[in-house]
């Protein structure tokens, strides 16, 4: 099941889809089916172009990010004793700081959690995120940064085993058993994370961060030029929609 999830996740990216279409076009061309090959090449080009437009990425991300608005500055947090931060990418290397080893999403998530923790004296910070064999768990990077910012070990819980959001939800449910907590993750990822938490019997208060919609203002004709930022937004959105579809049919 894990292999299928990774396979479908890889396919839900404009670059991979365009590559597969290009390979299929080359095979058709070798067999003399040039008309079919031309259509596939045109489809590959359209996939790359549309997927690279910031506007397309924002259209896809907007419903995801709007489902859970940012946590209000005056939100009632009495009785909330834990903040849970979901994992992301972490690649520690010699001589680089932890802020460089964490990927963009992970860094934003843990910084937001630390910011919220300053509003909540006595709160416990639960950092999550495992990794495949041979890689470093994101939770360890989060924990290092939290300690660097003065979080005591007595206020820190490290969940370094869960390797995906479904496993994180189960680990949190086992640890907190229904206790209220703030859930910190990227805004585009929050809908899927909340569904998985609810399915695990938890009812967290959403604290989304790293909002991407509106990050790149329209610049006239330049908005019709594909960019790597546009590709990234489209890729993130497609990955989340695929994950939500899997949840809808009972696959985590």
Structural description of this entry:
There is one protein chain. The chain folds into two domains: 2-65 and 226-248, no CATH class; 74-209, Rossmann fold, CATH 3.40.50. The protein has helices at 2-11, 14-30, 34-51, 54-67, 98-101, 104-118, 138-148, 165-176, 190-199, 228-248, and strands spanning 82-85, 124-128, 156-159, 181-186, 205-209. Strand 4, helix 9 and strand 5 form a beta-alpha-beta unit. Helix content is 52%, strand content 10%. Helix 4 crosses helix 10 (228-248) and helix 9 (190-199) packs parallel to helix 10 (228-248). With 252 residues, the chain is α/β, with parallel strands linked by helices. The chain has a five-stranded parallel sheet with strand order 3-2-1-4-5, with helices on both faces. The protein is elongated, with a radius of gyration of 20 Å. The protein has ten helices and five strands, in the order ααααβααβαβαβαβα. The model has no long low-confidence stretch (mean pLDDT 90). The N and C termini lie close together (9 Å).
In short, what is this structure?
The chain is of the alpha/beta class and 252 residues long.
Please describe the structure with a list of short key phrases separated by commas or semicolons.
alpha/beta, 10 helices, Rossmann fold, 5-stranded parallel sheet, 2 domains, 252 residues
Helix content: 40-55%
Question: What oligomeric assembly is this protein in?
Answer: single chain
How do the SSEs run, as a string of H and E? Answer: HHHHEHHEHEHEHEH
Q: Could you tell me the CATH topology label of the largest domain.
A: Rossmann fold
Name the average pLDDT. 90
For the record, the count of structural domains works out to 2
Could you state the CATH homologous superfamily of the largest domain? HUPs
* Main beta-sheet strand count, sense and barrel state: 5 strands, parallel
Task: Give me the side-by-side strand order of the main sheet.
Answer: 3-2-1-4-5
Distance between the termini: 9 Å
Radius of gyration, in Å, reads 20 Å
* Count of beta strands: 5
